[in-house]
Amino acid sequence: MLIRKRIEIPSSEITPKETYRTFQMSRRRLLAGLGAVGAAAATVGLPEAAWGLDKLKTVPSNYNVTDRDVTPESKAQSYNNFYEFGEEKDDPLHNAQKMQIRPWTVKIEGLVKKPQTLNIDDILAYRPIENRVYRFRCVEAWSMVIPWDGYPLSELIKFADPLPGAKYVQFISTTSGRGMILPSGIEFPYSEGLRMDEAMHPLTLLTFGSYGEVLANQQGSPIRVIVPWKYGFKSAKSIVKIKFVEKEPHTTWNDMAPNEYGFYSNVNPQVDHPRWSQAHERLLNSNSIFPKTVPTLMFNGYDEVASLYSGMDLRKNF
Amino acid sequence: MPSKAIPYFKAAVHILCLLPAAYLWDLYRSHKLVAFADPVNYITHFTGDWALWLLLVTLAVTPVRRLHPSLNWLIRFRRMLGLYAFFYATLHLLTYVFLFSGYDVPAAIAGVRKWHLMEPLVQLNAVLPSMLDDAEKRRFIQVGLAAWLLLLTLAVTSTQASIRSLGGWVWQGIHRLIYVAAILAVIHYWWLVKAGVRTPLKDTLVLAVLLLWRLGLWATKRTKAKARERRLWSEDQAIR
After folding, report:
1. Same domain assignment for residues B14 and B118
2. How many domains would you assign to chain B?
3. Binary contact (A275, B140; C-beta < 8 A)
4. Using CB atoms, which residue from B27, B39, B130 is nearest to A277?
5. For A148-173, how does the pLDDT look when each residue is reduced to its tens digit (9 = 90+)?
6. pLDDT at A37 over 70
7. In chain A, where are the structural domains located?
8. Are B103 and B124 spatial neighbours (Cβ–Cβ below 8 Å)?
9. Do residues B48 and B126 share a domain?
């Protein structure tokens, strides 16, 4: 009678992050050709400094969430929607580790003065990395509070120098990871997009890290965007291409179910998802068995973006 | 199986069916569950999965039994398995009501501790509008609830006394609703996952096999019955 069941790995059996990171770092460095250093790093009892590479040098910012506790890092890194790496929330944690995040380049294409390919490390070093704590609201009616590390996307857009005809920015995510599990129906590469004014908004963060460290693979390492007033799926992960276009680009979830996932997908408690209410959210930032259900805020509490949508019917343009 | 062994076997099946619940309880007691990113989501899926799986196991009893006459004793476990499916379906529903809906459990507990015995109902009243809204608007909630109501009906009428008072025919008719409940449960699953997500596929295939087997059995029986009818009819003609 016993049916085989996927048992959740108890937290006690999950490799401690440090250990895993050590392994990951050492592997990365081996791949980078620094075999000797890598081999040394792989030995037990690694000194702190050896994986200090994984930490990001960040500067503080004025963006903070003061009324909610920050989600524990382990929760933010074990509960991810990254469908290229599986459909279950904990699949990306296991499957995304195959993704190679170095070398990594980002292509700048479309309506720009000069299309070019940028190296991730150059993008990283281009501006100081700010630490910003944002509310993160998933379309599935749960939310977290996560410290992200990055700089405004507007900086990179200015660097890319788009032509006047560029009205939208499209983000294309990687498909390079071998072993990506492709569920039927969802077409990859993942495509997301923002209107130019949304992309230029100071809140829109080009993100390289969280919790002061390099993004975990399952969070969309090495480079993603975070658009805090929109549902999480709008914040494309593991970006390999940024394209400036004239017309609204196609976006993956909108392709799948246009009635469920609009192009704008601003957090809006008044517009329900067809399968659940968006008026409330489960705030995943505590260690309690009883969920904290809190009212969802318009634009996820980021009222400063309201002017971007003045005159628009947000029920139609959900 | 010798009749003497049945009680022992029943005890074993009880234990097996309670193992998932015990596992969940252990996760809770050992504080592992709270370390999960979204404990409520986990509990919901866990109880929902087991409700559906046990329903499928219940539906598998008859086909397996028919494999060989020596497996006939399996029928004695069918009711028990069905009741456990209902048990997990009920836990699933309770998870929705008390953990998913926004019900303030700590407030309810605190109220009771202060001898405000109505507090749990006050809290229920507070989330009732959103639950009714769900029941009214969301089709996956509707089919899920319908499946549970059917299972409730079957559970209530699962006693020997019910069989006697309803009569075999009526009782069997009612209990054929398990097919409807299982189909609704699978639809519930498909309607709640995102487009393109195929996690309900395996359960659906198992259910399809179990139902098609019955359809096949029914079709063969019908053909045989017709053949017999024809034979009797021609014999009848011959006699005349």
Report:
1. yes
2. 2
3. yes
4. B130
5. 999 999 999 999 999 999 999 999 99
6. no
7. 14-54, 55-309
8. yes
9. yes
Same domain, B136 and B81: yes
Q: Please, are residues B167 and B48 in contact by the beta-carbon 8 Å criterion?
A: no
Can you tell me whether residue B171 is helix, strand or coil? helix
Question: Of A91, A289, A294, A296, which to mutate for an interface test with B (greatest number of B Cβ within 10 Å)?
Answer: A289
Question: If pLDDT is split at 50, 70 and 90, which confidence band does B197 have?
Answer: confident
- Distance of alpha carbon A296 from alpha carbon A299, whole angstroms: 9
The whole-number pLDDT of residue A281 equals: 95
Residue among A11, A272, A284 whose CB faces B32 most closely: A11
Per the structure block, which two tokens stand in for A199?
Answer: 């992309």
Looking at the fold, whether B181 and B210 belong to one and the same domain comes out as: no
Q: What is the pTM of this model?
A: 0.82
- Count CB neighbours of B204 within 10 A: 15
Both B167 and B54 in a single domain? yes
Is residue B230 located within the same domain as residue B170?
Answer: no
pLDDT at B114 over 50: yes
How far is the C-alpha of B193 from the C-alpha of B141, rounded, in Å? 12
| In contact, B84 and A1? CB cutoff 8 Å | no
What is the model's pLDDT at position A303?
96
B126: domain range?
3-199
Classify burial at A230, counting beta carbons within 10 Å of its beta carbon; exposed 0-12, middle 13-18, buried 19 or more. Answer: buried
B39 with A75: Cβ contact below 8 A = no
| Candidate from B37, B81, B195 with C-beta closest to A284 | B37
Q: Are B131 and B157 in contact (CB under 8 A)?
A: no
- Structure confidence by residue, pLDDT tens digits, B89-111: 999 999 999 998 889 999 999 99
Q: What is the pLDDT of residues B45-80, one digit of tens each?
A: 999 999 999 999 999 999 999 998 888 889 999 999
Whether the CA torsion A190, A191, A197, A199 is positive or negative: it is positive
Residue the block writes with tokens 């070019």: A116
**B84 and B155, same domain (yes or no):** yes
User: In this complex, do A272 and B53 lie within 8 Å of one another by their Cβ atoms?
Assistant: no
| Optimal mutation site among A2, A190, A273, A275, interface B, most CBs of chain B within 10 A | A275
Q: Report CA-CA distances (Å) from A198 to A230, A308, B24.
A: 10, 7, 44
Q: How many CB pairs under 8 A join A and B?
A: 94
B94 CB near a chain A CB, below 8 Å? no
Tell me whether B136 touches chain A (CB under 8 Å): no
**Hey, is B37 helix, strand or coil?**
coil
A1/B13 touch (CB, cutoff 8 Å), yes or no? yes
**Interface-testing mutation among A70, A259, A290, with chain B (most B C-beta atoms within 10 A):** A290
Q: Are residues B114 and B131 in the same domain?
A: yes
Q: Does B39 touch chain A (CB under 8 A)?
A: yes
**Least confident window among A2-11, A79-88, A208-217:** A2-11
Q: Which CATH class for the A55-309 domain?
A: alpha beta
Distance, CA of B193 to CA of B189 (rounded, Å): 7
Judged by CB atoms closer than 8 Å, whether chains meet at A185 and B194 is answered as: no
